[in-house]
Amino acid sequence: MTRLKEKDINQIAETLVVYNNDLVRMTGCTLKEIAAQASGKKIDYLDRQNPLVAVVPMTCGQGIIEGFSESVASIITYLGFRTVITNNSDAGGVAEAVQEGAEILFMADDHRFVAINLKTGKVSDNGDATGKGYVTGLKHMCQGLEGKHVLLLGAGPVGNSAALTLVRYGALVTVFDIDLSASQRLRGVIEELGYSVQVETDLESALARHQIFVDACPAENVIELRYISKNTKIAAPGIPLGVQGLGVEQLLTDRLLHDPLQIGVATMLGEVL
Ligand code: 2YC
Questions:
Q1: pTM of this prediction exceeds 0.90
Q2: Which one of 2.60.120.380, 3.40.50.12150, 1.10.3720.10, 3.90.1280.10 gives the CATH number of domain 6-126+263-272?
Q3: What is the pLDDT of residue 194?
Q4: Ligand 1 pocket, 64 CB below 6 A?
């Protein structure tokens, strides 16, 4: 799992309004609408909820990421929910949150980033939520995915969730991962659920044949300029962005969905409410 850096997240809180406007321009949906759809909740259901949400810093492993808790809290606050960052970290922070009456906890160590509803026991994992949220955004960007060919890059936790969401939206999915066994495992999981995906081993050939991409891998420059056409659309939850360099980002201003935390955190909240 890619560990965020402070520089990836230090602008989030102050740019949420601009970010949301960009999202509406690209998908026709606000961040809250994408989170609601991706988590299967109605917007007015979300609007009726009023839990206290606590973000608990975790010092274990590689420790605190400067600005991480603040960024997570700013997204939740932006969505209209009361949010606190606990003064204590780790177990003390969890105890503090419960004593303050928090109903929902957000916390991340080096292996899992989870949201937990203390009342209902619902748990949402960032990887799973991110896959759902990004594919929901991509569906709107493409005016539907039914019958459309999509190339999924990366068969990790986000890729697995994205694949399932894609096939449920009727997309024709091809998956590539540098680890062929990861692609094959993903195919097995999808087939278990009654769907199918194609496994691709030749990245260049796959890139040349597709115009809709989900970049759920941590590689940079994986999608190069020569594979970008005027109809290309990319949902890129992967950190760092895999279409960097070559001025590709400018080329894709309205057709590239990419953020370090926003869609994943918003969908996590939708899932546990
Ligand atoms: O500040 C803290 O509480 C740290 N323990 C947070 C560590 C987060 C590690 N995970 C990541 O950087 C990314 C997240 C976007 C979710 C998955 N990987």
A1: yes
A2: 3.40.50.12150
A3: 97
A4: yes
